[in-house]
Structures are given as C-alpha cells and as structure tokens.
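[Meeting: bench + compute handoff]

Bench side (C.D.) handed over the final construct sequence. Compute side (W.E.) agreed to return the predicted structure before the next meeting so the bench team could plan truncations. Sequence as handed over:
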Amino acid sequence: MNGNLWYEVARQRGADRQRDARQAGEARQARAAARERRARDRAQESPVVPAIPDYAHEMFAELRDGVPAPRHEAGNGRQTPAGR
C-alpha cells in the first residue's frame, strides 16, 4: 500500500480526534453554563424566611408560666374524647 495513503489516514484520524475533543469541551462548557443558570434561578425563587422568629413572645402567647393553656374542645356530648 502507498505510504502517503497511510499518512493521510493518520492525519485525518488526528483531525477527527481534535474536532471531537473540541466539541466535547464546548458541550461541557454549555452544560456548566446551563447548570449555573438553573442554580441561580433556583436561588432567586427560594423564599427568604428567618430561621428564628423575631417575636417569640407572640409565638408562645398561649404559654402561661411555662405550661400550655388547656385546650377547649367543642364536644357535642355524644362522643367522649380518648384518654379521659
């Protein structure tokens, strides 16, 4: 077989590998950019809520001396609440 033909085949394969590597790199960059956009969008969508309320005394207004106030259950007389 002709030596020039082998050289051309090898050169074409090398060019193909370089093209494939360049396309793979561009695809990685595009995926990374898309991931970054999605993360940024998710961060903007999340609500900002304080972990600890500023007015804890309002949350625990029903507590008197550290003991919860008794529940007022509306009973119609026919059913007895469990545990009594």
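W.E. noted at the follow-up: Helices lie at 3-45, 56-59. C.D. will use this when planning the next construct.
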